[in-house]
Design brief:
Largest sheet: none
Strand content: under 5%
Number of helices: 5
Radius of gyration: 18 Å
Order of helices and strands: HHHHH
Oligomer: single chain
Distance between the termini: 39 Å
Structural class: mainly alpha
Shape: elongated
């Protein structure tokens, strides 16, 4: 978490990132950018899913509806923040000739999505109003 906070300043300072190491093959930088955009699409889908749960399931118990919606919205926010941080860390590693950074975030995001999906299965099986 401390490294994450330190890196926030670099999100808005591309010149500082470019000053490190040497320019990597453009194909790798562009692949890193495509991965970043894929993470943003995932974040947007999660946020859209959170709003959909809240708006289109009015008969669902309030606690279930709000809990599921907030879980999806929070996952979307975390995913979007993680996307830019991971992009920056990968770009720096490529410029420095280091190994790409490992991340536990995909596993965490998968668990959150699985838990929300299981909760939705319970809601469907037990009925909307419970």
């Amino acid at each position: 978490m401390i490294e994450f906070v330190r890196n926030v300043g670099l999100w808005f300072a591309p010149a500082r990132i470019r000053a490190e190491g040497s320019t990597p093959d453009y194909r790798f930088s562009l692949a890193n950018e495509r991965t970043f955009l894929a993470w943003l699409r995932t974040a947007l889908a999660l946020i859209g899913g959170g709003f959909a749960v809240d708006q289109f399931l009015p008969d669902l118990r309030w606690a279930w509806r709000v809990g599921l919606a907030l879980a999806l919205l929070a996952a979307g926010v975390l995913c979007s923040l993680r996307a830019v941080n991971h992009w920056m860390r990968c770009e720096r590693a490529m410029r420095r000739g280091e190994d790409l950074p490992a991340s536990r975030f995909p596993a965490l995001l998968s668990i959150v999505v699985a838990v929300v999906a299981l909760a939705m299965v319970v809601v469907v099986l037990l009925g909307w109003a419970g």
